[in-house]
Amino acid sequence: MPLFDFQCTACGTVREVLLRSGQADPTRCQACGGEVRRLLSAPADLKRMDAFFHKETFSDADIASKGLTKYVNRGDGTYEKAAGSGPDVMSRDKLPL
Ligand SMILES: [Zn+2]
Description:
Blueprint: E1 3-8, E2 14-18, E3 36-39, H1 42-53, H2 60-65, E4 70-73, E5 78-83, E6 89-91
Antiparallel strand pairs: 1-2, 1-3, 4-5, 5-6
Bound molecules: zinc ion.
């Protein structure tokens, strides 16, 4: 699914839109209701998407130091803590709330 930039011809606002095949282009600006035009920048968009989907991954130590918690799916409806603080196990049937 390609990302396209649309620019408003009235106020100049640029909006990024993810278009599925067969989906019509947006025609109106969300900010002012003006007419929008697609900007021709597909190669740049593809590079940006690639960067997004291959962004930096974090080690377990990084996760813990940022105050986050990582859980690993054990496949039986339970998640086991791999890094950070929080309950050691979470179950889909028994949430720790
Ligand atoms: Zn506008």
